[in-house]
């Protein structure tokens, strides 16, 4: 396995899928709870996205909110015990507390983003039977969870959590480029423009192209897709195709790995919490640089298959990346806000920052 940055073979060319994700697969003969109506399935393949409304109950999502609150509490205690903050801010609720921690310790949102262990409430959403019935309509009866998932810690007015235009495939290795990876973007409150809801560029998948991205935006670890490149390579008309997509609590945004998307800045006073979860066929490559495998949820050959959560949760993708590619890594500072990953080496670095410099150091260490 090699990485472009190691051999100065940066991705600077458009990569085309042989079969753009525009063909609706055969639909299940059986009607099942959670399935999308035909017009929503058609929109997903025609335009590259669809909005699913009023899907989850308040009770289902409350479990997720409670899990996030526990993660924030654990972070607050860790910062407090280390003398990084003077107050625990226990009187603040789920949508304010991380923001208060961020005000006192800049980078608290990044630390929480880095140090995520998937709680059971998220697992239950990911393999929810109604969700899998829906995903079956998109990729068929054999369904696995893709190894990349994230809890988005979008605190107010923080550039560190403002994600620029990109295609998900730009973060994956090329062995994922030939198959569909649907993404669910699920907010834990009403997501509106003021608090940083999503934008999508509809029809951006129709060319089958993974456009040329660059790295990295500002002082972040995010790859970037310029609007000019979207127009040239993906045929996007910014005036017609770029859409702002509010999502009511209980619903979610569904899009594919070629659909350009970004988040708006959070200009509210609340943390805009969300998770993104992905699925694909277990018969395809995972597309994550051999760092981690996915988790099988359904098999047409074994209707009684159960997810192997112990195996999946035993893998820390960031830890493996560090161990594999930085032989001299020492015990990491638990409050370090640097993030590196293999995607940084796939694209031309046009903006150096602490994250790109850390990545280059990792590659330099490996090569010595």
From TrEMBL:
InterPro entries assigned to the protein according to its UniProt record, in alphabetical order: Phytyl_CoA_dOase-like
Record's compositionally biased regions (Basic and acidic residues): 1-16
Region (Disordered): 1-37
Pfam families: PhyH
UniProt-listed SUPFAM superfamilies: Clavaminate synthase-like
Cofactor: Fe cation
Domain of life the protein comes from: Eukaryota
Record protein name field: Uncharacterized protein
């Amino acid at each position: 396995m090699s990485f472009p940055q190691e051999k100065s073979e940066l991705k600077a060319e458009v990569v085309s899928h042989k079969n753009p994700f525009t063909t609706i697969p055969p639909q299940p003969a059986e009607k099942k709870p959670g399935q999308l109506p035909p017009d929503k399935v058609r929109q997903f393949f025609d335009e590259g996205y669809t909005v699913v409304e009023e899907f989850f109950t308040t009770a289902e999502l409350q479990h997720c909110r409670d899990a996030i609150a526990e993660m924030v509490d654990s972070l607050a205690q860790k910062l407090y015990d280390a003398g990084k903050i003077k107050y625990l801010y226990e009187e603040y609720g789920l949508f304010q507390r991380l923001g208060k921690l961020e005000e006192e310790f800049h980078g608290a949102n990044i630390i929480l983003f880095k140090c995520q262990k998937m709680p059971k409430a998220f697992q239950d959403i990911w393999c929810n039977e109604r969700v899998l019935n829906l995903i079956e309509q998109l990729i068929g009866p054999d369904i696995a969870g893709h190894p990349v998932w994230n809890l988005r810690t979008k605190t107010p007015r923080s550039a560190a959590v403002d994600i620029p235009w990109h295609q998900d495939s730009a973060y994956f290795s090329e062995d994922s480029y030939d198959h569909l990876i649907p993404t669910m973007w699920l907010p834990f409150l009403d997501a509106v423009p003021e608090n940083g809801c999503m934008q999508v560029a509809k029809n951006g998948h129709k060319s089958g192209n993974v456009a040329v991205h660059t790295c990295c935006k500002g002082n972040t670890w995010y790859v970037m897709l310029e609007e000019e490149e979207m127009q040239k390579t993906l045929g996007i008309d910014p005036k017609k195709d770029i859409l702002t997509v509010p999502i009511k609590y209980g619903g979610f945004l569904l899009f594919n790995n070629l659909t350009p998307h970004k988040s708006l800045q959070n200009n509210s006073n609340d943390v805009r919490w969300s998770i993104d979860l992905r699925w694909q066929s277990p018969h395809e490559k995972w597309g994550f640089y051999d760092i981690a495998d996915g988790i099988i949820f359904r098999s047409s050959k074994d209707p009684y298959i159960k997810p192997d959560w112990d195996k999946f949760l035993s893998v820390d993708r960031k830890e493996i990346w560090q161990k594999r590619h930085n032989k001299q890594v020492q015990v990491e500072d638990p409050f370090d806000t640097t993030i590196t990953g293999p995607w940084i080496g796939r694209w031309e670095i046009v903006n150096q920052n602490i994250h790109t410099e850390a990545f280059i150091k990792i590659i330099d260490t490996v090569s010595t």
